[in-house]
Amino acid sequence: MSNGILALLSLLPIISVAVFLVMLRWPASRAMPICYVVAVVLALFVWQVPFVRVMAASVNGLIDAIELIYIIFGAILLLNTLQESGAIQSIRKGFSDITPDRRIQVIIIAWLFGSFIEGSAGFGTPAAVAVPLMVGLGFPAMAAVVSGMIIQSTPVSFGALGTPMLTGVYTGLVDDPAVLAFAAQEGMDYLELVSYIAAKVAFIHAIAGTFIPLILVCVMTQFFGKNKTFTEGMKVWKFALFAAFSMTIPYVLVARYLGPEFPSLFGGLIGLAIVVTAARKGFLMPKEDEIWHFPERSDWDPLWIGQLEVKDKQFDGPAMSLVKAWMPYIVVAGLLVATRLPQLPFLEMLRGQLATFTISNVFGTGLGQSVQPFYSPAALFITVSIITYFAHGMDGKSYVNAWKTSGKTMLSAGAALVFTVPMVQVFLNSNGGAAGYQQMPIELAEGVAALAGNAWPFFSTFIGGLGAFVAGSNTVSNMMFSLFQFGVGERIGADPTWIVALQAVGGAAGNTICVHNVVAASAVVGLIGREGEVIRKTLLVFIYYALFTGSVGYGIIATANGNMFNIGYIIAALIVLSAVAIIMKHGVSKEPAIAR
To answer: Which residues is 555 bridged to in the sheet?
Structure first.
């Protein structure tokens, strides 16, 4: 069978997701079983994968789904605990004291706090922390989920202390003869090569990431504002760009001088310190008559509202102090960092042999799965919830109520995830069949590469994003495609490290539309059945990110080959000039003419 036909067939599970979930707006619990069946039929009858291997891949997916449900439960439990203790009311007041403007709040929470949590833990944890926090502050559930997904771009390549680079790219390239020869030619070992690529990844991300906070607020005002206009988001363009640079400048410097472990963590943390301090002093803040709010809750579209409702409780005595209210989130952040730093003993304790449960050689296929329940962010969320019970002096009835409410929300999330993640595993484990084809994602990428030729840099980010869209992980996308991207780079006469960098950037951007991340984030706030609506709102963000970074990458590679004026730079310049023109038209206040 030709590469082109195989590529089209490999695309069918993805097309199924797009049709049923995004275009027809079916709930994931209804759409994903059909998508799973499509992947299974292709694996069995086209790739001719043995039935037991398909079932083993499905079991792997079920285990992954259970882990996701576990994280969802922990995140909801922590939020419900803070609601019952009165901490959420104090946190809400604390943000209102900085500013009641929801545009500023979403930049601080989603972009900066979310980037810090991504750098600490990765793997969807920012959605589990920042999204319910925004709902607790009074954001519509869908606005919170969309915001949480949009920022899953720039910080993702360095999430979980650089895992997408140090595990994803490293594992994807290691021990290949062509990569060995290139590294030797450049006088590097593998780890130095990955760090070299990581610096390029950070540089490309910083260019596209400059506009992410502005896009974030414009999406929010366009879809969730009373007037439904992006112009209201544009009004805070100065603050949005200030917040972007406050994160991306230290992010690039850390990637260049410290390596791939800390760019997102330090970028988010330094950005938080700079931006919150500046906001408290009123720097670039909206005037009182320009404060932007969501419409009254009674005017919200029912599609915006999730099952997770945060209501103010009546408490006797003075309000909780801000430090005490924030303590659980500070502890979560501290524990996430402490348990993921290899220099500290906790990482080995939580991931060691006694703390790891392995299911190996499922149905005799060689496939298997390891579970580390104490390393999961869920374990930290539950631990901090228990600490909060004592630290906030909660009564037993309120705490039991937090557990009951969280359990009900968790169960409603399961129906979609038990088909979403198995579909991913069948798609990824479709090699080893009697037909002799490579796994579906590689066949798809091969088909695109054959058509693209020297224009491949434009497509490399989209392939990386497609890998993350399906696999649910930038790390897995990098593991799957890094060597393929390296090989394409050498075939077209480009510096292959730039092509691998574009893969990593695209894989990060793919998290904005990743199906099971959207399902998980939606489930955290009880936004069940509206996953397709979320993807419809984040899809343009992914296209912007992949196209902009692909154009920059093409321009860099063409310049290295002696072509300074090329289509890549032209497209990138058009994107920047369009952004500037839109800001000048809609973001710059026009002073009324003075009567003479």
So the answer is: none
The alpha carbon of 356 is separated from its chain's Cα centroid by a whole number of angstroms, namely 26
Residue type, 522: S
Q: What angle do CA 377, 138, 145 make, to 5 degrees?
A: 50
Instruction: Identify the burial level of 401 via C-beta atoms within 10 angstroms of its C-beta, where 0-12 means exposed, 13-18 middle and 19 or more buried.
Output: middle
What is the value of pTM for the model shown?
0.86
Beta-ladder partners of 358: 370
At residue 416, what is the residue type? A
Query: Is the pLDDT assigned to residue 466 strictly greater than 80?
Result: yes
How far is the C-alpha of 186 from the C-alpha of 167, rounded, in Å? 21
What sign for the dihedral angle of Cα 258, 259, 262, 263?
Answer: positive
| Residue in the structure block whose two tokens are 């997770």 | 308
For residue 421, the surrounding DSSP H or E stretch is: helix 396-428
DSSP run (H or E) holding 567: helix 567-582
Coil, helix or strand at residue 393: coil
E strands, 272-353, where? Answer: none
Angle at 165 between CA 542 and CA 12, to 5 degrees: 45
HEC secondary structure over 529-554? CCHHHHHHHHHHHHHHHHHHHHHHHH
Q: Is the pLDDT of residue 269 over 50?
A: yes
HSE, side-chain direction, 13 A CA sphere, residue 463: 32
Do the Cβ atoms of 486 and 173 come closer than 8 Å?
A: yes
CB-count burial class (<10 Å; 0-12, 13-18, 19+) for 348: exposed
Give the CA-trace dihedral at 109, 110, 116, 119, to 10 degrees: 160
CA–CA gap between residue 518 and residue 507 (Å, rounded): 15
Compute the distance between CA of residue 425 and CA of residue 369 in angstroms, rounded to an integer.
11
For residue 581, CA distances in Å to 231, 574, 584, 588 come to 13, 10, 5, 10
In this predicted model, which residue has the larger pLDDT, 54 or 524? 54
Amino acid at 218: C
pLDDT above 60 (res 234): yes
What counts of helices (H) and strands (E) characterise the chain?
27, 2
Cβ pair 201, 165 in contact under 8 A: yes
Within 10 angstroms of residue 187's Cβ, the number of other Cβ atoms is 7
Is residue 134 exposed (0-12), middle (13-18) or buried (19+ Cβ within 10 Å)? Answer: buried
What are the CA-CA distances from residue 483 to residues 158, 176, 431, 438, 460 (Å)?
Answer: 19, 8, 17, 14, 12
Contact (CB, 8 A) for 446 and 32: no
The CA distance from 469 to 492, in Å, is: 26
